[in-house]
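Review session, final week

We close the course with one last complete record, chosen because it touches almost every idea we covered. It is N-terminal E2 ubiquitin-conjugating enzyme, a protein from Stomoxys calcitrans with 152 residues. Go through it on your own first, then we will talk.
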Amino acid sequence: MASFKQKRIKKELMQLIKKPPPGISVDMSCIDNDLAQWTMKLDGFKNTLYDGESFKLLFRFVGEYPFESPIVTFTGDNIPIHPHIYSNGHICLSILSTEWSPSLSVESVCISIVSMLCSCRDKRRPPDDERHVKFANENPKLTNWYFHDDSV
């Protein structure tokens, strides 16, 4: 019998396949058999700094999803250059750590990240990128985040 976690993940996946938000899609070739890991494709929106670019987000559902946030990182050859995205793919976004709520979903996380990209005015890495990449745990949820100002 499928667990609550499995039912929720499957429901979210089916919704994203049937009715994906603009610029967001599921990479069906990157979903494992137990749905514990998926890759989402995000397209940069027109008239933004990321116009014409595509990015991949890796979602890993560990622990007690949806009561615990998924592990979400950018992956692949094109990690966005953004003041809240580290060069190792870690994303400094409060809903992925301290502000997670079970009412959030893969779709809402993707939309938040797209919104973050769309509002960017200056392509640059976080000021502590080099140190973070050198010392951070592979799992960004085990990172003690310093949330830099949101003036970007």
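Two points worth writing down before the exam:
The mean pLDDT is 91.
The first helix runs from residue 4 to 18.
Good luck, everyone.
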